[in-house]
């Protein structure tokens, strides 16, 4: 009879062999680790010590119950062997954390609590697990601009990503509705751009739409972000920052109108949503300011990729500005589209000079200007990704269907506020990134997959966790597991895995539907459907063939 904890591991490991017996941890628990495994061992001691109440001490291998060994080379693979006397995790440095997280899944689910429960026996079944990820990029994008997430919310979310072997956290730090990172050279970004007087209810697309009447905002100091980066790194997660340019820049230009296309125009931080025409201008003084902003950002985030957005930027403001037209003429640039190419190329070169790589949404593939090592995130279906891969660029697959977790989890009116018709748990689990890939010879350019938590209509932490889980569990298995089970088998495993989320206190959506207190009701979280999923997919597919967003979907 297989041990239940072995058959409920999520994501599904590559190879599991059950053996007779079990390991029971008893104080003092000896932990042995070589120098390369020291950080993973420290994390293991802290997390399990807090949750179990056991005392963890450094020990020689001969006396240790838990042994972490560093293998030579790179990669995130690991081997976990558990027997009656000890558990041994062997892996390259990057793989050790995955072995630690799997060991925690094999212990009673209460080890995900923050304090010990009385009378617990801390045992793990004897087994051998050999495991490795399918993709090197297993990500989640968290939008902290439309609705701000406190630092502690992000740290908690990092723990949940690590539990599921995810390794990328993409932080969307700027948009029309707010600027979230302290830039010391430009203090008005936090004094003015970091907050708004209210927020439109639902997916409001006009300042005349009803609003909640409540000021909203917040920002992260540079030290806050360094803390987030370090906390994530200790859990095997790289933080990718995004500053969206040249579009989605209303908050930036509200703080510094001289960086906008019409400096005499009064602009306020956005209180509603949609595609705004408030672009930054491409004039020399603005380019210099953006470089200064990025230099401060690079000093915080060591990630090789820096996300510069590039999406949903209608170019009419560049066409209609006399100053911008004169500057284009001085450069010998024929039109706004060519200026966009120049803009992308400039910042790709700037990042390359600082040892970094530009990554952006798939619109940037239309205008050109990418460096050879620039990468794109394909959100409007797969076409942008296929086009980028054919041109030799790395790709992260992030298509609206099924990786946009701001869409509802079912079509029931009981669901809370969402941006559109349902993307179900089964939809996410069924996603195969290569399925529509025309030229399979270019699929090796796909770095991996990523889910998106856009927060126009995700209003608070409880709502965020509800929209993320358990769909993130399904995407984690898509990203990690080379061989997946069928959906029914996954759902059966997930029913047990959710016990771990219960102990951690996650406000996930139950498999049978929302709890009474999670339903949208008739208030500000009442279920609305802005986008029909089939119509949205057809529209995105057509748009992916062109450059600028259609005018009818702009907010002004």
Tell me what the structure shows.
The chain is of the alpha/beta class and 556 residues long. The chain contains 19 helices and 19 strands. The strands form four sheets. An eight-stranded parallel β-barrel has the order 8-9-14-15-16-17-18-19, surrounded by five helices. Strands 1-7-5-6-4-2-3 form a seven-stranded mixed β-sheet, with helices on one face. Helix 4 links the parallel strand 8 and strand 9. Helix 4 packs parallel to helix 6. The longest helix has 18 residues. The chain starts with a helix and ends in a 13-residue tail after the last helix. The mean pLDDT is 95.
The largest beta-sheet arranges its strands as 8-9-14-15-16-17-18-19
**Intertermini distance:** 63 Å
Q: How many separate helices? A: 19
The radius of gyration computed from the alpha-carbon positions, rounded to a whole number of angstroms, is 24 Å
Poorly predicted segments: none
Please tally the β strands and state the result.
Answer: 19
Q: State which percent range the strand residues make up.
A: 15-25%
Multimeric status of the protein: single chain
Average residue pLDDT: 95
Largest sheet: 8 strands, parallel, barrel
Overall shape: globular
Helical percentage: 25-40%
Structural class: alpha/beta
Keywords summarizing the entry:
single chain; 556 residues; alpha/beta; 33% helix
């Amino acid at each position: 009879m297989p041990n239940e904890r072995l058959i409920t591991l999520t994501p599904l490991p590559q190879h599991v062999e059950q053996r007779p017996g079990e390991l029971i941890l008893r104080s003092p628990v000896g932990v042995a680790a070589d120098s390369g495994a020291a950080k993973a061992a420290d994390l293991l001691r802290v997390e399990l010590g807090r949750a179990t109440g056991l005392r963890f001490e450094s020990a020689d291998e001969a006396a240790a119950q838990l042994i972490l060994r560093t293998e030579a080379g790179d990669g995130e693979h690991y081997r976990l062997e558990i027997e009656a006397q000890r558990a041994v995790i062997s892996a390259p440095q990057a793989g050790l954390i995955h072995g630690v997280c799997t060991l925690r899944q094999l212990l009673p689910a209460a080890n995900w609590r923050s304090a010990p429960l009385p009378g617990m026996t801390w045992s793990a079944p004897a087994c051998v697990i050999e495991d490795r990820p399918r993709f090197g990029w297993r990500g989640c994008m968290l939008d902290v601009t439309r609705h701000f997430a406190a630092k502690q919310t992000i740290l908690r979310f990092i723990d949940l990503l690590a539990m599921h072997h995810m390794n990328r956290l993409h932080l969307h730090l700027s948009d029309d509705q707010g600027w979230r990172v302290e830039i010391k050279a430009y203090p008005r970004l936090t004094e003015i751009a970091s907050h708004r007087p209210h927020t439109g209810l639902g997916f409001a697309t006009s300042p005349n739409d009803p609003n909640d009447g409540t000021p909203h905002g917040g920002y992260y100091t540079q030290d806050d972000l360094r803390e987030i980066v370090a906390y994530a790194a200790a859990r095997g997660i790289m933080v990718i920052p995004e500053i969206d340019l040249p579009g989605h820049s209303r908050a930036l230009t509200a703080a510094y109108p001289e960086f906008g296309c019409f400096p005499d125009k009064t602009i306020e931080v956005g209180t509603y949503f949609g595609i705004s025409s408030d672009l930054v201008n491409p004039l020399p003084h603005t380019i210099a300011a953006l470089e200064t902003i990025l230099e401060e950002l690079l000093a915080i985030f060591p990630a090789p990729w820096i996300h510069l957005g590039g999406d949903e930027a209608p170019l009419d403001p560049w066409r209609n500005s006399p100053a911008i037209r004169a500057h284009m003429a001085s450069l010998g640039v024929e039109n706004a589209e060519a200026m966009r190419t120049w803009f992308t190329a400039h910042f790709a070169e700037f990042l390359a000079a600082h040892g970094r790589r530009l990554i952006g949404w798939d619109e940037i593939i239309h205008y050109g200007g990418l460096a050879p090592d620039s990468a794109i995130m394909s959100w409007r279906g797969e076409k942008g990704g296929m086009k980028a891969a054919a041109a030799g660029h790395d790709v992260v697959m992030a298509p609206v269907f099924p990786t946009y977790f701001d869409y509802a989890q079912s079509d029931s009116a009981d669901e809370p506020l969402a941006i559109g018709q349902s993307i179900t748990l089964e939809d996410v689990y069924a996603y195969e990134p290569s399925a529509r890939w025309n030229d399979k010879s270019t699929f090796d350019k796909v770095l991996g997959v990523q889910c998106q938590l856009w927060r126009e209509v995700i209003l608070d932490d409880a709502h965020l966790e509800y929209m993320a889980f358990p769909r993130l569990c399904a995407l984690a298995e898509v990203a990690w597991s080379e061989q997946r089970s069928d959906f029914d088998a996954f759902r059966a495993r997930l029913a047990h895995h959710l016990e771990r989320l219960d102990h951690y206190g996650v406000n996930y959506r139950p498999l049978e539907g929302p709890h009474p207190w999670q339903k949208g009701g008739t208030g500000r979280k009442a279920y609305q459907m802005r986008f029909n999923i089939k119509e949205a997919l057809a529209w995105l597919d057509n748009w992916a063939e062109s450059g600028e967003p259609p005018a009818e979907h702009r907010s002004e």
